[in-house]
Amino acid sequence: MAAFPCPALGTTVALDDERERTVLTWHPEFDGRLHTLAGATITDPDLVDQRADRPEIGLVRFWPDFRDGCFVCVVVRADRVPGLAGYRYWVVTVYASQKVDTWKSMWER
Known about the structure:
alpha+beta, 7 strands
């Protein structure tokens, strides 16, 4: 399991082994670069959004040197932790996209 600081959300975001395997199965282009690209996107995103109709948070960053220039989108979810006052933030998926029209900015660099 990996954990990345996320100043934009004021917390740490976890990428567990099962989620990592799932991301690499569906998005093999991240093989060997998942922690670098997802970690930096979580730590220093260009755009952060939470859609009104979904509980997930999108962290997005443009990478000019990845796949001839594309956005890396890290989808994060926050779940209540029984017995604790806070939430656990964890990676649902990571994907690459040429556009980010799914996510509308609530915060942008």
